[in-house]
Amino acid sequence: MNRLHLHLVSDSTGETLETVAKAALAQFDSVETIKHFWPMVRSEGHLTRIMVDIAQNPGLVLYTMVNADVRRTLEAKCRALGLPMVAAIDPVVHALSQMLGQTAKARPGGQHMLDAAYFARVEAIQYTIAHDDGVGHENWEEADILLAGVSRSSKTPTSIYLANRGYKTANIPIVLESPPPDNLFSLKHPLVVGLVTSADRLVQIRRNRLLSLNQMPDTDYVDQEAVQRELAYARRMFADNGWPVIDVTRRSIEEAAAAIINLYNERHAGEALA
Q1: Is residue 254 a contact partner of residue 246, using CB atoms and an 8 Å limit?
Q2: Which of 86, 108, 221, 233 could disulfide-pair with 11, CB 3.0 to 4.6 Å?
Q3: What is the Cα 124 distance to its own chain's centre?
Q4: Domains defined along the chain, listed by start
Q5: Which of 162, 169, 211 is nearest to 190 (CA)?
C-alpha cells in the first residue's frame, strides 16, 4: 500500500481543496492518505509556522492562494524542500480570465460571501430539517422538491444534500398501512420524485439498522416478501401520479441528488419554454 502525506493549504476554508483531493484520490487504489488541513493561511507568519510540519511530513502540497506575496513564499519554500505542489484552481481561473477579458480579483473565499444565494441556502436547510419524514405536510407547496419512498431509501440524507445545494426539500415515507396526506397528490410547485431500491439491498440496510438498535431482525420490516410488497405499492403510486423515479440501489447520495437536480432543471426549462 502506498502512503501519501497530502497538505491542503488554503487562504479560505479549504473546502474546495478537500473536494478536489477527494475526487482525484478516488481514481487510485490502495493508497493510505494522511491529510493535513491548513485553512485560513493569509500571512507569511502563519505560513512559516505550518511549513515546519510540512517539512517534517513531506508529500504533495495542494493549494489555493490569492495573496501574491504569501503564494510566492509558499512556492519558494516548497521548491527549497523539493516538494511537488499544485495550484488547484489556477487553470480554471486562467481560462475564465481569457474568455471574459477580465483580471481575476484576489478575493479569498469569494464563494462563501454572505450574499442572497447564501441566505437562500440557509433557508433551504432550515426548511428541509423542519419537513423531514412527512412532518409539516401543510407547507409542502413551499418546497422545491419532495422525495417519496419507503423506509430506508435514503430520503433524509438526499434531502439534506439537496438543501445544502439550495433546494427546499421535503420528504415523505410511503407506508402500506398508512396512506400519505391527500395534498401530496395535488401539489403544483414542488417536483415530486420517487426513490426506489432493490428489495435485497433494502432488507440488508433495514436488518443492519435493527441490529444497531439492538432489536430483533425478524419482523415484516425485513421480510423479503413484505418488502417487495412495499416497493410494489410505492412504484404503483409513483406511476399512477406520473412522478419520475430514481433507483438508488447503486447510486451514492451525491449521484442520486445530481439526477434529481437534472430532473428539476429539465422541468423548469420546459416551463420556461411553455
Answers
A1: no
A2: 108
A3: 14
A4: 2-111 (3.40.50.2300), 116-273 (3.40.50)
A5: 169
DSSP 185-244: GG-SSSEEEEEE--HHHHHHHHHHHHHHTT--S-SGGG-HHHHHHHHHHHHHHHHHHT--
Backbone φ and ψ of 115, nearest 5°: -100, -175
Widest pairwise Cα distance in the chain: 69
pLDDT tens column, 161-205: 999 999 999 999 999 999 999 999 999 999 999 999 999 999 999
Distance of CA 51 to the CA centre of its chain: 32
- Residue 225 one-letter amino acid: E
d(CA 11, CA 136): 41
**Strand, coil or helix: 119:** helix
Q: Is the dihedral of CA 236, 242, 248, 253 positive or negative?
A: negative
The gap from C-alpha 181 to its chain's centroid, in whole angstroms, comes to 29
Residue 96 C-alpha cell reads as 475564465
Q: Which three cell numbers stand for residue 90?
A: 489556477
Contact indicator for 159, 171 with CB cutoff of 8 Å: yes
Cα 181 to Cα 19, 151, 172, 185, 187, distances in angstroms: 39, 17, 9, 8, 11
Q: Is the pLDDT of residue 38 over 80?
A: yes
Lowest mean pLDDT among 20-24, 96-100, 258-262: 96-100
| C-alpha grid cell, residue 48 | 512559516
pLDDT at residue 116 greater than cutoff 80? no
Which letter does DSSP use for residue 138 in this model? G
